[in-house]
Amino acid sequence: MSFLDYAPAPESRAIVSLKDDYGLFIGGEFVPGHGSSFRTISPATEEVLTTVSEADASDVDAAVQAARGAYDKVWSRMPGAERAKYLFRIARIIQERSRELAVAETLDNGKPIKETRDVDIPLVAAWFFYYAGWADKLDYATGSKNPQAWGVVGQVIPWNFPLMMLAWKIAPALAAGNTVVLKPAETTPVTALLFAEICQQAELPPGVVNIITGAGETGRELVSHEGIDKVAFTGSTPVGRAIARTLAGRSTALTLELGGKGANIVFDDAAFDEAVEGIIQGIFFNQGHVCCAGSRLLVQENVHDELLQRLQRRISTLRLGDPLDKNTDIGAINSKAQLDKITELAQSGVAEGATQWQADCALPSSGFWFAPTVFTDVQTSHRIAQEEIFGPVLSVLTFRTPDEAIAKANNTPFGLSAGVWTEKASRMLAVVDKLQAGVVWSNTFNKFDPTSPFGGYQESGYGREGGVPGLLSYLRPTTGAAVKK
Ligand code: NAD
Fold it and tell me: Which residue ranges of the chain lie beneath pLDDT 70?
């Protein structure tokens, strides 16, 4: 420990009490699944947290039937103002249990407690509050009389923001009048199961929300079930493509939120201190397990050396380790499989001729860890410039003119996010206009708000989450007469 080091400041985990094993949440109750069980571990220590059920085809069917019954008999008949009361109640319980949820998420996912405490869980509550406000105003959102929900929605989410992705899916779906069956990722089921308890606590009518755990096979059963009216998926591009193939030719609606390879563009007139913080926020927030991460840094050639020097100095001060420690900046990689993927892609960067720099930090002996990494001398053809790494690895490229920056930023099969750093508003607006990305931040990065739509182009998927567009994607397209205002 150096003389300026921090003393350990671990958050207590006593607030979380998990059962030894969990069943599936179907029809308002926890019921045993018919598949085998599997364990979920803390990726920081490899300690087993709890055992969960793997839903098989019969469990998926039971969950879809429960959602259908709740839709037909209760939820579709309930006035929006009544649905809103349940959503407000859920939002308030999330706030009341926020510390518990933050610790549980950090344990199961490996992300730092300061992120779950200050970002994930507050946004989860905000998402429910925001969509609760829309539940009785659907005619104003659509501009038509009597807008119709899809009915039963099947939702599948990834492991990088487990409870936040759940909120992005469930809050607008319920506000619009749908019932849901949601499957969390196999490595992060814990907070979805705690959310099931919150639904019980809020006395949500049974069957309105059903949570089934399991891996890819369970997800495949869910999205291909004939009783589902709409599928909402967030995850990798290959799985999104497979789902689109399954649903082709059916009337089932589909939205896909997939991968990304965001460009963070820094011009020579940018405020460097702020840009360095934004670059770090863009790629090291949540260990880079972020679909909209700024994983490609495009820096104007004349300031490359100075910016890189400042960036590396700042990265060297990031603290990697116990995710429950309130001082930790970089937590654990979520799984061994993800660590192997990051390692393989980083090795390809070295093999293809890029220069690798890693922060000099000790990695804990158990769990899954990857030191913050920066690649320079990256060519646009390198795999690390093209493929999503989904880890704490930054690929740096250079440009000379705004046109070259735009061309390089758009040279990707994805189209989810981008960032532009410059002090000139005219330059910012001119560049932003030409970037093919669903969200573009300027002089900041990775900012989320429930009122702001989020989604991608090209291989990043289609459909929007957040804001009014996120609500509309849970309603059938309307052809009816306009509402008289
Ligand atoms: P993944 O596609 O492997 O898994 C996502 C979910 O799909 C998991 O719950 C998994 O069990 C399930 N699944 C796997 N195979 C399936 C199948 N054949 N049918 C149905 N479901 C199936 O992705 P991941 O590794 O968990 O998550 C990382 C990916 O998610 C990254 O590519 C990331 O960019 C993307 N992501 C996108 C957004 C966004 O909003 N665009 C947000 C977060 C993550």
Answer: 1-4, 479-485
Test site for ligand 1: of 166, 239, 458, most ligand atoms within 8 A of the Cβ: 239
pTM above 0.85, yes or no: yes
Give per-residue pLDDT as tens, 200-246.
Answer: 999 999 999 999 999 999 999 999 999 999 999 999 999 999 999 99
Question: Whats the size of the chain, residue-wise?
Answer: 485
Q: Is 257 among the catalytic positions?
A: yes
Which atom belonging to ligand 1 lies closest to the Cα atom of 183? 9
Rounded distance from Cα 25 to ligand 1 centre (Å) = 21
Q: Which atom of ligand 1 lies nearest, measured to the CA of 416?
A: 41
**82 noted as active-site residue:** no
**Measuring CA to CA, how many Å separate 289 from each of 205, 221, 229, 378, 391?**
35, 26, 30, 21, 5
Reading phi first (left if > 0) and then psi (alpha if -120 to 50, else beta), residue 463 is in left
Give per-residue pLDDT as tens, 252-293: 999 999 999 999 999 999 999 999 999 999 999 999 999 999
Task: State the Cα–Cα distance between residues 259 and 47, nearest whole angstrom.
Answer: 29
